[in-house]
Amino acid sequence: MASSLLTRQLALSLQQNLRLAAPGSRYVSKTATKTVSEFEYDAPSMKTTVPGPKSKELLRQLGEIQNTGAIHFFCNYEESRGNYLVDVDGNRMLDVYTQISSIPIGYNHPALMKVMTNPNNVSAFVNRPALGILPPENFPEKLAESLLSIAPSGMTKVQTMACGSCSNENAFKSMFIWYRNKERGYATPSEEEVGTCMVNQSPGCPDLSILSFMGAFHGRTLGCLATTHSKAIHKLDIPSFDWPIAPFPKLRYPLEEFERENAQEEARCLEEVEDLIVKWRQKGKPVAGIVIEPIQAEGGDNHASPDFFIKLRNIARKHGCGFHVDEVQTGGGATGKFWAHEHWGLDDPADLVSFSKKMLTGGYFHRDELQPDKPYRIFNTWMGDPSKNLFLSEVLNVIRRENLLEQVTRSGKALLQGLYALQSQYPHLLSGARGQGTFCAINASSDATRDSIMLKARNKGVFLGSCGEKSIRFRPALVFKEYHVHQLLNILNDVLAEHK
Ligand SMILES: Cc1ncc(COP(=O)(O)O)c(C=O)c1O
């Protein structure tokens, strides 16, 4: 009875959500090809500056409860569709930031609405289990259907988690456990180890370390934060570990034009990585693992070549360190491959690959050796959420059915070409366009210019994200078509033309 009532309500909301909006756009290029999915709006539509009056009032109300400094505006998620995010003042923006890169196939996708309205799924939404002790009957089947169907090469195991940080945090723990087990020859831990771990002392709590890179972002929990080096605001006042930090290559773009200089810069960084591994071993804090993003995202969309990553993987292997690829932001298709590290052509797969965001659930894939030897070593109450696996299965169906990775590659090419054109037209404002798939970025001449461009674009109907010191990052959903690229470029062009 209750379930059929819920189903009726969801079906009603589905009908309301599928109502089509009136077309009309002020900014669409006449030359742009128009291919609008049937459930989507066809253009931005702005009624107020953003934030508008309703958003401002809600900001005031929430400000009495929380710090609201990071909030851009309040959203009307019911009215948002596809690539368009609608705010509470009725402004409809082309969303090129997608909830910090975490919306895989746009807002209110009909396929996901169907997952919600399927009565067989209701109990998964209503009853969130403690997965580590009481998983539902269909859990192995659903994992196989969703996550294991896209497991990176060499990996047959997956551990789900809630968010990106807790995925990385537990991936680090897995590397430490694996490293110590190797060191003690897989023998039972000594009484001394068991005793000392209870009071945070060695050898039970060993002085091991994780090597990370300057500019990296791996999350804000305590362990992750020790490997995050993108912005001081994330780290200030928080105690941290004395772990090695290697320089990440500072490359010149476009990469094809600066191959020789970039290769030298990468060689310098790799040399430093090996030096740090040796130094930290001498210091008595051996490096148990290396963690790296395929493209440093929050830190400024910094790229490195496949050759750099392959050599780094070899260094990890040579020194017995785990190799952890953090695909929390790059994973899920935005680079044109499901996993960004597939672009490297590694012979020897990574040891761990963490994910979250577009995957809708957090977690990490790992090699068999990194499976913890005992229960409760990698554990928490929820350890993920089976309802998210249901959504993920459907997202994967849509990606396959609609060839979205090919779509991303096409849209990405159009976007990058457009960014190259804009930077040559406005060289005093923009430079350094770069990207893989639609995972693109461009530098502004200063942080103030970047912020001003982004605000003006928002008021004209394009919502963008920033990264690094002065970069704009483009993080559209996988359903971002060439038509949307043209809308975006036209609006950016208007903003840049008016820029004083
Ligand atoms: C590469 C990377 N790792 C980890 C995280 C942390 O994820 P979460 O914010 O879900 O904790 C992020 C978040 O932006 C990220 O981009």
UniProtKB/TrEMBL annotation:
Oxidoreductase is among the record's keywords: no
InterPro entries: 4NH2But_aminotransferase_euk, Aminotrans_3, Aminotrans_3_PPA_site, PyrdxlP-dep_Trfase, PyrdxlP-dep_Trfase_major, PyrdxlP-dep_Trfase_small
SUPFAM superfamilies referenced in this protein's UniProt entry, alphabetically: PLP-dependent transferases
CDD domains named in the record: OAT_like (cd00610)
Catalytic activity entry: (S)-3-amino-2-methylpropanoate + 2-oxoglutarate = 2-methyl-3-oxopropanoate + L-glutamate; 4-aminobutanoate + 2-oxoglutarate = succinate semialdehyde + L-glutamate
Protein's GO biological process: gamma-aminobutyric acid catabolic process
Cross-referenced PROSITE patterns: AA_TRANSFER_CLASS_3
EC number assigned by the record: 2.6.1.19, 2.6.1.22
Family affiliation: Belongs to the class-III pyridoxal-phosphate-dependent aminotransferase family.
Role: Catalyzes the conversion of gamma-aminobutyrate and L-beta-aminoisobutyrate to succinate semialdehyde and methylmalonate semialdehyde, respectively. Can also convert delta-aminovalerate and beta-alanine.
Name of the featured protein: 4-aminobutyrate aminotransferase, mitochondrial
